[in-house]
Hints:
This protein is an alpha/beta fold.
Amino acid sequence: MREQVGPDFWLMYDCWMSLDLPYAVRLAHAAQQHGLKWLEEALPADDYWGYAELRRRMPPGMLCTTGEHEATRWGFRLLLEMECADLIQPDVGWCGGLTELIKIADLAAARNVMLVPHCSGVYSYHFVITRTHSPFADFLMRAPAADQVVPMMAPILLDEPLPEGGVIRLPDRPGFGVRLNPDFALQRPFPH
Length: 192
């Protein structure tokens, strides 16, 4: 992968909470030779002590990231106070919305910790452009074969901006610049 993307492209590895501390440390050090920028969600979401130790044992220059499965500002406060991560990744839809994300971001900024919102689409884009310690937003590849760039919230939302050359330009429309798709059939996933 490194040869395909060049030396300046951030390679990141999402472990989806599947490792234990000794394995995560070994993986981080083995991946250092490939210029891995960060190791994401290596441990279970509530293993704060494990994340603090993992961060201490990471190779120099590699970031320890977590937070997409954290649901409250108090959990993020604990992550930050215990120095569990170099970068936190709250999900706008899971952490309580934009108002709560702003509170979490303020906690992170006070500790000089970067924040990259986890896969929250257009809501993340609007947030990121207002912050100096949020260098970019996640963009989830939703095409089944990962062979094209498609809107993250389709078919529920219309008019989502798509990245062009790695940059997303926000629409000049009210609100978030998107509309609910009136043709999308809303249905309950389970009967009452």
